[in-house]
Amino acid sequence: MPRQYEYRVEQVREEYLEQNGVGPAIRDALKSLFSEPRLPDNPYFYLASLLAAYVDQSPLWKLSDADIASTFDMECAVEVVQPDTKLCRHAQTPHCFGLPHVVRLAPKSGVEVLSHVLNHGVPEAFFPSSLPFRVGSGYTIQEFCSVQGSCCVWHPSLMQFPALEVRSDVLISGARMDEAVRIFIDLVLTCVEEVGAVPLYFVDGIAIMDPPSQIYEGSKQPFYQFFHMDDILERPEDFEKLAVRQVLGHKVIKMSCVLMIEVPQGGHAVGGEGHGEGHGQLRYELATKSYYFHYASLEPSTIEYDQMQHYGTMPYEALYEGYFLTLSTARQYMHMFLEVDKQPYGPVALPANLDSLKRQIERTLYAGKSLDAFRQLLHLILIQDAEVTLSSQLSIKHVRSLEQTIMTGRGRARGRGNGAARGGGAGLLANPTVLGVIPNLLRTLASSAATIQGISREVEAISSAGDKWPAKVRQMRQAHAEAVTEGRLKTAQTAGSISSRRTLRTPEVDSSMLSWLNTFDMEGKLLLQLEGIKKNVQASMGKGVFSGLSLLIDQLLSHIPDTAPSIGTAKLLRQLQVVLVQLVQLLHVGSLTIAHSFLGRCADIVWGLNCVGVQVTSIADVQEASGEAAMRSGAGGQLDSAAGTALTPDWVLDVHSVAGAQVQNGGLAERVSVEGAMLQYAVDVRLDEALSMLWHQVSQPPQPLNPFPKLMHIVRSRAAKMELWLDDEEESLLRLANELTLSAAGDVGASGWMYTGHRVFQGPQAEGGSRSTIGSQARSQGQEEEEFGSSHVFGCYSAVALADARALHAFRSLLGSTLLADRHWQQGAYTCEVVPALCGDAALTNAMELHDFLKLGQDQQLDGAGSGPSAGDPHHPRLFGLLAEEHHLVTGPKRKEAAQVFGKEVAQRLISLHTESPHLLLSLEVWVPAPLAARLVEAGLATSSSLAGIAAAPGLAASAGSWRNIGSPGDASAEANSSDAGRSATPSEFNIRPSSAAMRSSHSATSATASTVSSVGAQSGIDLGGLSGKQPGPESGTMEGRKGDLLVWVHIGMRAMLDDAGKGELANALGAAARAVPQGRVLGAVSLYAAPAHPGASYMPLKQHITFQHHHISPALKPNQAMTFAARDGSRPSSARSSKDRDAYWGRDVYQRVFLSDFHASTWASWNRDRGDPAQPFHQEHMIAEGAREVDTLISKGQVLQAHKVALVCAVAAQDGSGIYQLSRCCLSTAQELSVLLSMNRALAELMGEDHQDAVVRAKFDTERLRRLVLLYCNGMRRAMSSPRSCYFTGLLSIVPAMLAELADTALSEFTFDASHLAALDQLAVWTKACEVSVAAALHDCIDDDVAVRWLGRPKGNSSGGGSGGSNRRGVSAADGAAGRDHGSSGGSVVLRPGSAIRKGSVSGLATSAHPSASQQPYRHTSASGGVVRRRLSGHRPSASRGSVRGGDGAVDGVAVTMGGEQASKEGAHHKWQGGVAGAVKLGSGSTLDPGIRSIWGEGD
């Protein structure tokens, strides 16, 4: 009986969910969950991994199996040419000849386009005819070229243009084997040189590798060596000797190149429209050509071959995955194997090729190339058609259409059952029912994963061509100039007339070719192709499951112009190189994730794999095998074996064990014990509430065409909520907040607003404890008193409220006496107190729960250091490195002389730090006046991104006014990239570091291009961080000085500091900065890697900011009177427009500045008492307003984690307990751990990159510390990429472990990374950043509305959850992204850049209403006697209304103190997880996302 609905809207919602497959998808996911013998602690991560595959809603998923089969049948008719050998031809085109299982999948349109391209659009050397020709003395060469790979199944109307894959089987007949092999190598290199000689074609290099049919036994790893073209041409004799040995060892040679081809209008293309009627589209595409060696010895008295030897190939192997374009080529190729087996499907060839295909499928799946594995599986399944494969004489009646084949197989399945595979025919074939898997395999090959992969491939081709084009033009001009000078022009010869390839070194270059090159406008054509690609990237990637990828891709696409400019194209293309490399990396992981998840979506594919003999039972098998394979090869077994596990959740509930226990205890009847245990589990994890919430939120209007991205985001937000919202808010605040004591006004040096922070709650005991039970241990009595200095921190209220004193003191102890120690110096009439402090994340360390760090410290001993926190291990998953400050407080008569003395002392200090300590000092960055910066750059003592090209224009240094129109920092990268990126082998060694298989399989662009990512990545692409990643101050690299002069941010390396001339210039630069930069502001930053005094510690990054302040006389240490003046009104603080305005306010750094001793705090406070209390509304409201602006900016740029930290600092300053509780979750999330891994990645790049290493610094390297850092990073990355909590992109687990093992092996053997390894590090950094943004986006959606409105700029009324409605529609919808093409009215079509969004919430409203007004100051002293104020955040609750901050009552020695606000009520103060997540993660009808956040997961997600 049909279901009766009370309301029409319910019926509409139900029909919508069923039609879009949401209902069946969730049911299947729940079935899979409850079919597991053990259930995960957080089921939502598990459900999200299963639902990820449904994000792809390509057109073929909506077609029936019969419609899909008929689509291919219309263009895949087959005719039998040779019944005995089963050689067939395509019935609709004369350009396809092969075995039936290949020809049946080759559409006519695709064959015609590829035939036209290969016969007319590429050099003849790349795809020659099979006509024999003679070389040398009696040696004959025949080359049989076939079409391979994805080209064989390319359907132009459904798929992107494929990568050109050509196989060349070279048959050389002659008397001597050694000479035949040499001729084979000459032929390969001749083809490489002829392709490279064409100005518009670019050869990347040659790879020597194992053949596809290679069998690996035990732990043997694949052999792969890649040689760049420059290296080969420099030492051709050495390469020839190496290649000859490898070919005789059954290795394959593979050439990689980039070709400009003209795709006819019948071919589907990405980049733009055709160039006129009857013409095609010019585009760059990647191409490969694999060479296989065959040798035949001929006796003078015979005609046939007496001896045939095949190297690296199976009989008829080219026909099992490819086809030939001509019948004669196919027959001649088959003729080579007649002595082995008379038929391709014969008793010798068939078993060998079937086993080879199975091994290739398994290896390809484990390598992350799921689409290639599905294509190979499609061919393997078609071979299972026994009527074709096992027939003695093939006829047309045996070759049925695909539709008939599929239906017949399914009919047999219904008749015989759908059991395990059984033998068929000769026992080689599987059950014919496996033929029913074909439709889903065709769907995967035409999915959005294949679309994104095609776009990625095209972007990589453009990047490679744009990188190699300038060098190639210079090379041709140089060759032409030499020919003109010598009065000759060298000419190239054809392959048919050569005796040695060594006559082809110099191509023909004449004046007409150079003239044509000058007018060709290569850069303009590449930008035109990018213009078309940009729109397709925006539409194909979507949002939701790609929340991190999509935002980063949007940032990269913003660098690509919508319309190619008419001038300046060369410079623009150079600047885009890093952008294109990172874009390829992100697109690649998006394609991998979708393709990888098809094993979970299509259970019949997994069943088909098992039927044909590939032992894969689930997606977890592929993930686990990938991790184990990398573990066997990683760093000599030094990597953590626990980190190589599969991408599976933490299993916590054994269903059968629980059911048995319940039956034994009498709690459940035996017949329903399992169901009862599962039901209890569902209730405990609130699956019932989750399903109800999903039903309402996913189906609410407006309903997108593709609801799965929205569904994915809600599920992942629910998972994050369950993961981090474990504690009650009150208990959590008890753990977070320190006990604060206000410095007594009568104490020496008291400021009246400096606090002492002491953490009463000490965390879990040594035996450990979970976060969910920690709150019950708070404020335990009887704890022993510790030494005052090691358990207290000092600073303003917000700085010490959440600072972990024990952890910070442990860090200071580990760094030794040379860092973070107070110093005093005197020179003549000038004295200085150097006051150290910590900043940044140091003020939030309580929120990071560094209990593990403290526990490790208690178990270890240091020589002379004793036990306790000072002996701690600094390597914590949530904290790596520190941001420190050095405040130089100079007293003396004149500021100018004080600045000069300061400069000399700091310079001497830096040099002594390098020469007398184990720490690695990398560089100093400092603000200096523009003329001085120009002089330093011109002398080679410094570099500056804002003064690029200064050496070419030294006259500009005479006037500071000339620097008013300085360009952006991106200009430096353009100049850097304009240099020749080619490499040559050293004279002593040939190809010292050939690229490995792991590096090449990661789909990074060419090494020459990728090597520029580290140097300019932060300027031209995604900001990956690092010690020298960002300067304090304007991002433009220039700012206004104290007297209005222009200051420039310059970089001074260690080598320049130690130079005799550099020492003086270093002191001058620091002195000039002290004079020009306003007092108290950061004038410079020291980048160094500290060597902690711990036997098991690695290097730890430390960024140290330097400030300078001068007084004529030392300020008196007297009680501060600033608290008594009348505060300014509560109007909206405006943004400071000048240095004078900025000096009036406290910056946010003071709200995060933590001092580790009371002397440091009081000294610094006495020098800065004139500004007053940072908690005064005048300062605090300005800081919060600036923070709100920065939060908006950070969110629009994808820095969600950093935005939460900025908001947390503001919430602490305003004493918003609910905001502190929810915003502090970011410090416990895996996003923070990923951020730490990103910092480690940048540390390795800076320390081990051969281009980044200063010889002076390298001489100090402690290789043992480097080894620990490498292992620490690799193990951390393995854990992160194998956990669904930190990695939302399942495809990464297939490729990341092998890359980590390769990096670890190289680092531990050579301690230096070349360009290819740096490119791999950058690739890992980009992927880590994408994971961090994705996790932070899910966490962002968990924040309650009232907190998000106050601190994250979410417009009031917008629910957290990413609703798809509203008028602020941003970007293409997630449905459009997943479907790839189909845009509907509910999807949204307006594309806005993240930077153009304007937050709906009013900054002034937030600043004036969310915090105490002038009459409600949080600290207003009414007694001059001083005293102690003790405050705990846990006693304060914000009201439900926006804009009020609740406070409590305090006492100062019995004197009442107004603490701001009224008494807090506890009704509705916070949302507990137990109270129902439906209220915490809400999607109101018609709600809209914040414009910045919408750029993360898109509208409707």
Summarize the structure.
Helices cover 43% and strands 12% of the residues.
Walk me through the structure.
This protein is an alpha+beta fold and 1501 residues long. Helix content is 43%, strand content 12%. The protein is built from 57 helices and 28 strands. Strands 5, 6, 7, 8, 9, 10, 11, 12 and 13 form a nine-stranded mixed sheet that branches. Strands 18-19-20-25-24-21-23-22 form an eight-stranded mixed sheet, sandwiched between helices. Helix 2 (22-34) packs across helix 3 (43-51). The protein is globular and about 105 Å long. The C terminus is likely disordered.
**Relative strand content:** 5-15%
Please compute the radius of gyration using only Cα atoms: 35 Å
Helix content: 40-55%
Q: How many beta-strand runs?
A: 28
- Poorly predicted sequence stretches spanning 5 or more consecutive residues: 268-278, 300-305, 414-426, 490-506, 630-636, 641-648, 745-749, 764-788, 854-872, 948-995, 1001-1019, 1118-1134, ...
Number of helices in the DSSP assignment: 57
Largest sheet: 9 strands, mixed
Q: What structural class do helix, strand and pairing data support?
A: alpha+beta
Cα-to-Cα separation, first versus last residue:
35 Å
- 3D shape: globular
Overall average pLDDT: 74
